[in-house]
Design brief:
This protein is α/β, with parallel strands linked by helices and 386 residues long. The chain contains 12 helices and 14 strands. The strands form 3 sheets. An 8-stranded parallel β-sheet has the order 7-14-13-12-11-10-9-8. It has a 4-stranded antiparallel β-sheet with strand order 2-3-1-4, with helices on one face. Helix 7 (229-237) packs parallel to helix 8. The protein is elongated, with a radius of gyration of 21 Å. The protein starts with 14 loop residues before the first helix and ends in a 7-residue tail after the last helix. Mean pLDDT is 90; it is low at 1-21. Bound molecules: phosphoenolpyruvate and manganese (II) ion. Manganese (II) ion binds next to loops.
């Protein structure tokens, strides 16, 4: 939609991005490039004093159809870019404009899909890449009595995944901190019965192993840990999909760089989650950062999801805030549900408790999302990379 090669306004949502130096590039290789050919290119780059690292990403079904992409760092000059772009094995050379190479929409020119196998191995949940909206619904904090029933209710109402916290980051040290390992066990036992993959927040590097033991399908990094770089590295190393929540006081630039710690571990299964920020708004729990859905979908190739419950913090607003996120083209939504909110251990006030209501909300989200995703395709406006 943006004509004449002018940079769209949304490519520079922040001051930091505007003043970012063009000090790197991405190299896309043609399909069928051999490792010898890439090594020759690497030798050339190194002789210029540049650093090169493989960009994690799509592996074809065989080595022959693998699309290799390299990140190049350092003082990249126009002459370097020109010379590399003339090489036979190089499809495209892309200068970097402030977005970490691993997340940039420009690295492959299309949005990336993160897939999670369904329990039992039959089929998958596919997030991003133009796939239909993915709804992750579940309890805020796993409890003993109502988690299974809440997650079954979510499934019947149309959810694709369940969310549930076994470790809860609480503002007060005296508040309930989650059932911890017992919570993970309950969550994952429920998964067997419900049949949907689960996402759960990991708070501490010491617990990552436990999440692997229970085979939690997706690790959530909460807003309070958005710049806990050691945790991001450990979560990245698992290779599991990581749902990264934007820090509620972090700029988008800071958030993208922090999220890149996950991808730097060779993990291409990063999902970027917005959940509202600390702002001047007083109507809701957090100030919505819905416009970032639009900004980011033109900048990064990551699936973008929105946590409507933690953004709104009010049950009555969850449906409508979700509508706005769908209208913005979001790939997935997180929503708190609980069959008995007055018994919920955390955040019962924002949980949807009635199956029919949840079904109707999800149906509206899906219709809006379908309409908007079809329009995006029609206009091809997200082809910012080309
Ligand atoms: C949550 O998802 O339960 C949660 C605590 O979210 P956030 O980190 O966004 O506050
Ligand atoms: Mn909560």
């Amino acid at each position: 939609m943006h004509a004449g090669g002018a940079r769209p306004v949304w490519a520079t949502p922040e001051k930091e991005l505007r003043k970012a130096k063009k000090d790197g590039m991405i190299i896309q290789y043609v399909v069928g490039t051999t490792s010898e050919q890439r090594e020759e290119v690497h030798a050339k780059l190194k002789s210029w004093g540049l650093r090169v690292a493989e960009n994690p990403g799509d592996v074809g079904t065989s080595p022959q159809d693998r699309i290799y992409v390299d990140n190049v760092f350092g003082n990249v000059k126009d002459a370097h870019r020109r010379e590399v772009s003339t090489l036979e094995c190089v499809k495209k050379v892309i200068p970097i404009e402030g977005v970490p190479q691993n997340l940039s929409l420009k690295r492959r020119g299309r949005h990336h899909t993160v897939s999670l196998p369904l329990p039992g191995g039959k089929g998958s949940v596919d997030i991003g890449g133009g796939n239909p909206l993915v709804v992750m619904a579940g309890v805020c904090a796993v409890d003993r009595e109502h988690t299974l029933a809440s997650h079954q209710m979510a499934r019947r109402a149309g959810a694709d995944m369940n969310r549930g916290g076994a470790y809860k980051p609480r503002t007060s040290p005296y508040d309930f901190q989650g059932l911890k390992e017992e919570g993970l066990k309950i969550l994952c036992d429920a998964r067997r019965e419900v049949g949907l993959p689960v996402v759960s927040e990991v708070l501490d590097v010491r617990d990552v192993e436990l999440f692997m033991k229970y085979d939690v399908d997706m690790l959530q990094i909460g807003t309070r840990n958005a710049q806990n770089f050691e945790l991001l590295i450990e979560a990245g190393r698992t290779g599991k999909p990581v749902l990264y929540k934007r820090g509620f006081s972090n700029s988008i630039d800071e958030s993208l760089k922090a999220a890149n710690y996950v991808m730097e571990q060779g993990n291409d299964n990063l999902i970027f989650c917005l959940r509202g920020v600390k702002g001047i708004g007083h109507s809701f729990r957090n100030q919505g950062d819905l416009d970032e859905i639009v900004a980011l979908s033109h900048l990064i190739d990551r699936p973008i999801v929105y946590d409507v419950s933690h953004s709104a913090g009010k049950k009555a607003a969850v449906g409508e805030i979700g509508n706005m996120a769908c209208a913005g083209g979001v790939d997935g939504l997180l929503v708190d549900v609980h069959v008995s909110p007055s018994d919920a251990l955390v955040d019962g006030f924002q949980a949807i408790d009635k199956e029919d209501e949840l079904r109707e909300i999800i149906q509206t989200w899906r219709s809006l999302s379908q309409l908007v995703k079809a329009k995006v395709k029609e206009y091809g406006r997200r082809q910012a990379a080309n």
